[in-house]
Amino acid sequence: MNWTKRHDIALLAAMLVTLLLLAYMSMFYIVLPFDVPGWHAPIAFRIFFFHIPLAWTAYLSFGIVFVASVAYLRTRKPKWDVVASCSAEVGVLLTTLALLTGSLWSKAEQDYYWRWEDARLFTTFILWMAYIAYMALRAGVRGDAKARVSAVFGIISFVFVPLSYISSRSPTSLHPTTPGFFPPQNAVTLLVGVVALTLLFFCLLRVRAYQENLRAQLEIIKEEMEESN
Amino acid sequence: MSEEAFLFGALALVAIGLFLYLLSLQMRQRQLERDAKLLQEMVRGGRKPG
Fold it and tell me: Which residues have a Cβ under 8 Å from the Cβ of A71 and sit 6 or more positions away?
């Protein structure tokens, strides 16, 4: 077994262990806010232990798109384009799940699924759409321009990440902010959730990057065969 | 709906979402392996890919 395979197995094992630990802790270990004034749905509160890690990992994935896009424009190495495209794809999945889980919590706690006037919901929706547009752009552009145009779009789209993060402080937002909102005893469970989802993200990113590299190699072989015939 | 329904609904959505994504990764992997095998056969047979 070479180093890369051992490294991958260790990553997979760490991800599974932390996911199981998160499932155990969020079901049996956390302090539910039964006696905190203003809380209407203390049981649905458990949704936060995967909603927040999903949202954090989505921000991380878009941060990686930004860094890889800058690296691609500086070095023109195709590996950075692969990292950016795969990270965006996983990020869109994680944002979709964060939006859906947040929406269900909101219905349980605040009696509505969605409010367009809520700044956090609106900016996160725009963020989600921006990276769907990034993927559509990659599917539409062909040739050498694909990686360059995608990198520029990946850098511009990142502006919605800090915008989405700070939007919960807007007066139009009813989205809770983390400090003061969470009972402090639950910080460890939340941290386990963040670690678990971060490891899951890196596992998915590695698999997608491996597939994308394999596809690129097959394309090169195909082109070489066409040229030689 | 009860609070438990929202909690388990959210859990089910996450599980289904991740499962479908993993399934799509598996399907892409199979397609890549098929393409690689086909190219290998073409290289052996000296045929042009098309």
Answer: A77, A80
Distance from C-alpha of A32 to C-alpha of A185, rounded to nearest angstrom: 10
Q: Output the pLDDT for position A20.
A: 85
Q: Measure the CA–CA gap between B10 and B12, rounded to whole angstroms.
A: 5
The whole-model pTM stands at: 0.90
CB contact under 8 A, B49 and A214: no
Please, which residues have CB within 8 angstroms of residue A203's CB and are 6 or more apart in sequence? A11, A12, A15
Given CB atoms, is A215 within the 8 Å cutoff of chain B?
A: yes
Distance CA A216, CA B36 (A): 11
A216 contact residues in B (CB cutoff 8 A): none
Judge: B6–A104 Cβ closer than 8 Å, yes or no. yes
pLDDT of B13 reads 94
Task: Report ipTM (2 d.p.).
Answer: 0.86
Query: Do A44 and B7 count as a contact with CB atoms less than 8 A apart?
Result: yes
Place of tokens 């232990």: A49
CB A148 within 8 A of CB A1: no
Are the CB atoms for A211 and B29 separated by under 8 Å? Answer: yes
**pLDDT digits 0-9 by tens, A58-88:** 999 999 999 999 999 999 999 999 999 999 9
Tell me how far apart the alpha carbons of residues A139 and A136 are, in angstroms, rounded to a whole number. 5
DSSP state of B47: P
Q: How close B35 comes to chain A (CA, Å)?
A: 8
Helices A3-28 and A48-75: angle between axes, nearest 10 degrees: 150
| Cβ A128 vs Cβ A100: under 8 Å | no
CA distance B24 to chain A (A): 11
CB A26 within 8 A of CB A194: no
